[in-house]
Amino acid sequence: MNQMEFALSGITKSYGPVQVLAGLSLTVQTNSIVAFLGPSGCGKTTLLSIIAGLKAPDQGQVAGVDDKPISYLFQEPRLLDWLTVAENLAFVLKDHIPRSALSERIDYYLEQMEIAVHRNSYPRRLSGGQRQRVAIARALAYPSRLLLMDEPFKSLDLSLKWALMTRFLQLWTADPRTVILVTHDPKEALLLADEVYVLSPKPALIKSHHVINLPRPERKPTALPLLQLEQQITAELIRD
Amino acid sequence: MKASIYKNRLVTISSILTLFLVWSMAAAVVGKEIILPSPLVTLTQLYHLLTSGGFWTHLGATLSRGLLGFGLSFLAGLFFGLLSGLHSAFKSFFHLWLTVIRSTPSMALILLALIWFESDAVTLFVTFLVVFPLITQNVTEGLAQIDPRLKEMARLYRVRFPTILYRMYLPAILPYLATAAAAGLGLTWKVMIAAEVLAYPRWGIGARMDTARTYLQTPEVFAWTIVVITISLFFDRILNALIRKQLLYWE
User: Fold this and answer.
1) Coil, helix or strand for B186?
2) Any idea which fold B37-246 has?
3) Between chains, do B149 and A74 touch, taking CB under 8 Å as contact?
4) In what order do the strands lie in the sheet with A18-29?
5) Count of CB atoms within 10 A of residue B125's CB?
6) Other CB atoms closer than 10 Å to residue B230's CB: what's the count?
7) A128 at the B interface (CB within 8 A)?
8) What is the ipTM of this complex?
9) Is residue A51 within 8 Å of residue A65, measured between CB atoms?
10) Of A44, A45, A96, A90, which Cα lies nearest the Cα of A70?
């Protein structure tokens, strides 16, 4: 378990005169879930883009990502309107999965995300939450080493959010990979993650780092240790 | 809904009737068939054309030249449009060429083609130069409209180029391609007839129209014009039906 997946060292990034990341350094363990918490616009998405190699840091290095396959769950679903739900999954999978296994894999993940009834629907016919579930299914079905998630459960109502987070953890346990989760919701981070980094507002620095030792089956939204940590983190976030 | 369709039909029919009425009255006022033949004379002439031997050969010649010219322009336009849309260097490179070609009067193209080529090649060459830039520019424009976030998604998931081309680029530019095809095919018939009038191929509607004009057979010029209008409307209808069926089915 304690093998390093990748490491960031001294990452800085500015857009013009505005500095968003001010020297972030950390290591991420293989097959762990690491959450970054911070106020909106603090540079969390920029951090994910840098890990994914979409953006280059001004200074510092990302070591260990190289050309590992990455799934990226964007803030918006980014589906192709002219392809059905199943075809949208096939679009990213068909170059990486044997043809014979394709359909079964698509169906499996759509079922897991409770969206299989819409496999032949076009995205425009779906609600925002349904589209996001398709995007989650796509990210999970893709055979990646790294899964980067940018506010993945944002557009979902509370009960569905809880159901899908539970389902996500089941799928992750069955097929573990390293997950980076960016969110502004402490509860989401505490329920899912092994480690939580709290970031300061622009420019983002690591304000605190928490290791969550509570086994996942015991993590309920009402579990006392989580509530205490949640209060502590919320206080940190509000202070800014 | 039904009532409004009925109403629309009524308007269309009365529009056609009015056109014929105005035409008849104008013909009666002018009183000279050689200047303005009446609808009746024109339709009689059309009937003679249809039953005469050469009609289908002339029609076939013009149709096949037009469709060949359009087809070549379409394929070349798609290819160069994709190149320019995907590589900005190509776009900058072709921009000047396309602008020059589009700014050249089609009559100038025809005259130059007459100097360079034989009559059959003239018509193809001119149609190509008129329609090809239109398709190219629409394809390039269509590609520019694709959401860059979708391109980023495809890149992150390492989707290979053929898959991106068939599943993302082509469907996304389809509305632009359809608009360009409709406009291009309409232009094809106009330019084709003009080129045939001047290039005078052995078979072809344009050549027949010029012969009729030379012998002052104005009714025949009118009759051939109706044939060309019918061709143009026919293909416009077909294309529109295809577009309606295929386009934006996902909406």
Assistant:
1) helix
2) MetI-like fold (1.10.3720)
3) yes
4) A18-29, A4-15, A59-63
5) 20
6) 12
7) no
8) 0.89
9) yes
10) A96
Q: Which residues of B touch A123 (CB under 8 A)?
A: 250
Query: Which 3 state secondary structure label does DSSP give B104?
Result: coil
pLDDT at B251 over 80: no
Q: Best interface-test mutation with B: which of A50, A66, A84, A92 has the largest number of B CBs within 10 A?
A: A92
Distance CA B73, CA B60 (A): 20
pLDDT in tens, A215-233: 877 787 777 877 888 888 8
A143 touches B: beta carbon within 8 Å: no
Contact residues on chain B for A122, CB-CB shorter than 8 A: 249-251
List residues bridging with A70 in a β-sheet.
A146
Report yes or no: A124 at the B interface, CB cutoff 8 Å. Answer: yes
Per-residue pLDDT reduced to its tens digit, A57-88:
999 999 888 889 999 999 889 999 999 999 99
Q: Give the pLDDT confidence of B54-97 residue by residue, as tens digits.
A: 899 999 999 999 999 999 999 999 999 999 999 989 999 988 99
pLDDT bracket for residue B248 (50, 70, 90): low
Record: contact B156-A54, CB cut-off 8 A:
yes
Whether A123 and B250 lie within 8 Å, measured CB to CB? yes
Q: Considering only CA atoms, which of B192, B217, B186 is closest in space to residue B205? A: B192
Of residues A54, A70, A78, nearest to B150 (C-beta)? A78
